[in-house]
Amino acid sequence: MIPLEKALAIVDREMRGWRVSVQTVPIREATDHYLAADQQSKLDLPAFDKSLMDGYAILKGDVREEYRLVGVVAAGEPGIDTLEPGTTVKVMTGAPVPAGTGKVVMVEQAIEREGRVRLEHTDSASHIRVKAKEVAAGQTILKAGTRLEAVHIASLISCGISEVEVYRQLCVTAISTGDELVNSVADITPGKIMNSNGPMLSGLARQWGMAVVREDWAPDDRAALRQSIDRGLSEADLVVLTGGVSAGDFDYVPEVIIDCGLEIHFSRVAARPGKPTTFATGEKGCLFGLPGNPVAAYMMFHLFVLRAAALLSGSTQKLRRFTVRTAHDITRRSTERAEFCPCRILDSGVVERVSYHGSAHLSALMEADGFLFIPQGVELLLAGAKAEFVMLSERSS
Predict the structure, then answer these.
(1) Are 309 and 171 spatial neighbours (Cβ–Cβ below 8 Å)?
(2) CATH of the structural domain 22-45+133-167, one choice from 3.30.70.1520, 2.40.320.10, 3.90.105.10, 3.90.79.10
(3) CA distance 116 to 111
(4) 277 near 291, Cβ under 8 Å?
(5) What is the arithmetic mean of pLDDT over 137-145?
């Protein structure tokens, strides 16, 4: 076994310099893609001094109890250029205010009658958004490597950007292995189980913006495995395989990986779950062999596959990690591996373990918000102890 951090460093080293191609796409089609270049705003935001409230624009320093109303400006209208002392203009939310305006007095704080506006009381806020206060034209608003989500798309459009250079969508082949797997309840016989890992890995890949070009299954047969892996390497940027990577009599994956012309960089990681995680690269491409147990496959996908996918897309994959406190004591019998323990976050902010019977216990993931990380060598975490939490689930408790 090699330490977890060393395994992650090997992925970084071997994937250095690998990139998928760059393409220019309309901004509305760029969701889930990674930016290939920094983006600079073409516009000032806001483009003019604008009112934050429905109210009356007052010149700076022009303090008096009553003003003459000289106009009304709605959002989208060009507005009035200047005001004379003793005058005011009624502005709606989002409307431009005249040059020299010091504040907008909310309509609730004034009385308008027969072309005159009398102030009842005012607060100290200006209620004005100043031109270019948020973004100035030419300012960098997003860095290369950013994975574009809905809020990024909206921000880019508001800054006048209509198309962007992005890395093309990463292509993935997901392969499940094992004679025990079936895809239909009708095929369940003694010793058979449903193939859940393939759909899980495909779903995770799509959830993280990748395109699944093939979801395959291979029996415990060298020739069939070779054919499936070769096909995956020819079609996709990443091959993600589950099962067959341990040390059983029918775990042929490691030797078939070598037969396919790839170099195995590691095949045992000091992590629980996920010990038999395998990473291999070569001229044909990149492959991750994940454990067959679903919790292990889920965890190692997030740790390793997402890391490689981000590097291929010119980014750095960042899982949400933060410090929490434990709700109860956590004791471990063995400390030779780092451990990821499925936990939920309570309303009080502390975390507690969910009912978990090992890395085959897939349903435990539905109760967990993520994983408490227990470093290698740590035997005991007392209740209230600080620990790192890795947030993987997007749902809330």
Answers:
(1) no
(2) 3.90.105.10
(3) 8
(4) yes
(5) 96
